[in-house]
Amino acid sequence: MPADFNWAIGGEAGDGIDSTGKIFAQALSRAGRHVFTSKDFASRIRGGYTAYKVRTSVDKVQSVVDRLDVLIALTPRTIDENLDELHDGSVIIYDGERTTMQDVEIPGEMIGLNVPLKALAEEAGGAIMRNVVALGAACAVTSFPIENLDSSLKKRFGDKGQAIVENNKEAARKGLEYVREEYDEEDLEYDLDTTDNDYVLLNGDEAIGMGAIAAGCKFYAGYPITPATDVMTYLTGRIEQFGGHVVQAEDELAAINLALGAARSGARSMTATSGPGIDLMTETFGLVATSETPLVICDVMRSGPSTGMPTKQEQGDLNMLLYGGHGEIPRFVLAPTTVAECFWKTVEAFNLAEQYQTPVYLTSDLSLAVTEQTFEPDAFDMDAVEIDRGKVVDDDSIGDHRTEQGQFKPHELTDDGVSPRAFPGTAGGAHMSTGLEHDELGRRTEDTEMRVKQVEKRDRKVETARAEEDWSPREFGDPEAENLVVSWGSNEGALVEALDLLEEEDVEVRVLSVPYIFPRPGLSEAFESAEEVVVVECNATGQFADVLEHDTLTRVKRVNKYNGVRFKADELAADIKETLEA
Amino acid sequence: MSSQVKFTDFKSDKQPTWCPGCGDFGTMNGMMKGLAETGNDPDNTFVVAGIGCSGKIGTYMHSYAIHGVHGRALPVGAGVKMANPELEVMVAGGDGDGYSIGAGHFVHAVRRNVDMSYVVMDNRIYGLTKGQASPTSREDFETATTPEGPKQPPVNPLALALASGATFIAQSFSSDALRHQEIVQQAIEHDGFGFVNVFSPCVTFNDVDTYDYFRDSLVDLADTDYDATDREAAKEKVLDADKEYMGVLYQDEDSVPYEAQHGLDSPMHEVDDGAPEGAMDLVREFY
Fold it and tell me: Is the backbone of residue A376 left (phi > 0), alpha (psi -120 to 50) or beta?
């Protein structure tokens, strides 16, 4: 019996795969088990292959592995797609009465459970519940107490009335009973223990939305795009409860300009998009920086370039975020490394944006966005949220920042590069700002001396931030190890688990997971003390590796994955080992 | 808001670099007078400008202001107003800025009906890039980039606005100072998106759409018994191929602005010292 357990439900888009998977994932989480989910989906609304996979364990899980113990297959293709991950003893639940499933052959030593999902669902009140019947069957296979499903079903169907909830409970029990009656439980060896632990289960997009509200974000404008849309969906209806507002804009250009306008009004403001949207927003990004407007711009990366693979993983936008835009633009780029960090880095992004009055890119990716993961609730301890609004002046303090003629200086040349900020409405603060080069008053100038002063002033913010803030990476593994592995963004979970696998093979590794892309930690010392340095990232060219080679003047080895699928722990361990030995 | 405000309080000490005789001088004066007359002052006013000759206006006026990127002034203005409904927001742009690169935003700004005013300085030419055809240039208007004319019909901003569900559509003429100011004031006072297309002649590059042309051809609706609340009548007027009109062409007196529809009634700039009260409920939702 493996320590962790992997199951999946797969079928066609439109079959309710996602919501069924989530019902079971939530039930596991509520039963005190850790959960890590992943999704295979295509860019279509109905048809095609789609799957929701869940890895669960009593211990913490933070990546996916190449193994499936139980598969609910609603289509024959579901079995074909997952053949590599199925093993002897894997259980496949399917409905042999379904036309397309009648000729299904269960391979090798796998155990096929032919359950009349549709017929049992109809007995319980409607064919639509066949997925829930399958979940009941899965409970029988795993000795998972079916009562744990009930609250998930209530959460999912509560809005539709008590009768629907009861029908679904009944459907689940029919699935359970059918398996118990028709199959020998001794063949079904899986056993999912429950604990008393309380966990929350959420994905990266939800964590970013929650972080935004925690940080006092009041305004969000966005345009729907996979995989960033869930940030907007999360905020819609919730941010209003905290005095905020969500606008679905006509396009990404409007989205960032709406957000910029709200930020000029003094609201903590954000937009989120994915690569193609970042391209469109880039012109205004320059204006945001030049007008010194605090704004959080979230890029949930997917495979590019152009429309690329909208539903697949990649960390390919790093160069765009670091260098995108004409001219030279001071900016911050933060990259959360886990779902929980999506929350904290969002809070931090708002503080940095206002403290330094500059745009902050918050970059997540598809893997983080769609992965639901369990955490202790105090991983999101709201009492620990701190807000820093930077140099805001009010009616009383504005007098210190005016010319002799009484004009407010929104772009005052200060030692730290940060100027006073007056929200519109502040008496005596009326001022102009512009994307044109400007003087301290915000007025257009082509004066060569002032140009130099303003460029240097904006750049000084970055120097100040480098000195004032902590840009340290997260560290794992053996600090004394000769081999150093560096990663950014969502690879951390897989890397931490890969570390254990490497240890079993006596490969000692020190891991630095970098959440700050710019400014970023100085890694020269770490690189010099290492025998070998390997940089891990989900892109083809090694964009972060290039940057680190430039920083440290040290050649690094690279592990890159760019087929659209995130790193898996076991695969990553093998890749790192091979790269170190090469 | 102060009743002591004079229109010159909205004037900055920067001298405009517009060509002598440019229509934009008159357009701007009307905007400043309109703002002062409607009880606003520079500290509660936010002006958003686009790019082009018209976009320079933020520099010559005194208020809270931002000069945006080409064609995107309207969403900026909407964001300012949504996040602080107490501000008086005025967006200014030109025909290229608003009807070419920003045409998409124009349609959606009209639909969105945020309570702000939008003044377009329409000179039917690109001035700052030295004389190319604009989206409102006549079909046969010869320029360096359209030697035989654009050979395509001009954009009809009034019809576009009406078709998109505008609640206030007006047209004015920069040299008719009193009427222009009056029309701008009506746009400011309108509950919703107050759109004013202003004929603001370019004396350097456009020798067709001149002061004389507008003075002789414009029909002032104030001199007729026109009913601006009648949408059918407005359809006829905005599609009239033979005449051009000055005045309010359409006003929906029942207009409910975006902010009212969405319950936006207070500024969003206040933030708690930590996470807002009740934030822990957001975490509990994920149990």
Answer: beta
